[in-house]
Amino acid sequence: FSNDGRYFAFMISTLTGPVFVYDLQTDSVLPGMIYQKPNAIDISPSGTWLGILPHDGDLTTANRFYKISDLAAGDTTKPVYVDSCYSTIRSIGHNGWAYDSSGNEVLVYQDNRDDWMKAFSPVTKQSLILFNMQFHISPSWPNYHIASIKNTSFNNWFLMTTYTNSIGWASNQLMMIELKPLTSDENSNNCTSSSVTYVSQAQYPRIWRIGSINNKYLDYKTEAFASIDYSGSNILVGANWNGTDNIEVYKTELP
Question: How far apart are the C-alpha atoms of 146 and 227, rounded to whole Å?
């Protein structure tokens, strides 16, 4: 749902959906509906965009965004596709919203095809290549989730939690990572991450380690989900500290 609590996205669990948006202010369902059953749906913090995030399908039903204002007018003909220069289906992993240096909403996500962490702006229609998760290389990044940033004053950073039962510098951590690209956006003649030119090491994104998460990872509910409040002052994270299969909620206060 949107930050102001006006727009809520729903998905009917059938092969054809639909996905629709409920407007609390007018107490009505927007007439523009998406007849598909994606893997996930989301509304941007400002309530400007509806995200449709499937894991498969043809190019016309790939990962894309619709303007809420278009759906309110019954118009579903203007989707914004994620990195539409690709000719193959993009599979998006765990993701969350943040704001870039210009204040645009961006969806930070893992590209499941090549493990690159990227940030896509429906406004500019461009992706920033951030870093590679290296899930297929040992040692790799641990498992992770991204908590959506709700406060625009936190632009150019995103919030990540990690969860794993292995030991490493990034294991079970709460961290903010700078939205700083390793290269320019992908929407050029080169549509693969392996064919781009990277910045110097001095320009790599900064990582702000906020603290550790005392968590015993067992299953989905123990994946250290976190949320940052609207003021940007507190982070809440669920953890299974003693490994007894019950989830506690811990609060971290930011300076």
Answer: 9
C-alpha to C-alpha distance for 83 and 120, rounded to whole angstroms:
8
Query: How far lies 251's CA from each of 11, 147, 161, 168, 228, in Å?
Result: 31, 14, 13, 23, 10
The gap between the terminal CA atoms of the chain, to the nearest Å, is 27
- CA-CA distances (angstroms) from residue 228 to 7, 29, 96, 191, 254? 19, 28, 12, 34, 10
Query: CB of 42 within 8 A of CB of 26?
Result: no
Amino acid at 178: E
Sort 206 into a burial class: Cβ within 10 Å, 0-12 / 13-18 / 19+.
exposed
The single residue listed with the structure tokens 């102001």 is 4
Tens digits of residue pLDDT in 22-69 = 999 999 999 999 998 888 899 999 999 999 988 665 666 788 899 999
**Of 25 and 223, more confident:** 25
Residue type, 78: K
Tokens of 152: 């625009």
**Spatial distance between the Cα atoms of 174 and 94, rounded to a whole number of angstroms:** 16
Question: What CA–CA distance (Å, rounded) separates 39 from 168?
Answer: 31
| Pick from 41, 48, 184: nearest CA to 119 | 184
* Tokens of residue 248, six digits: 């506690």
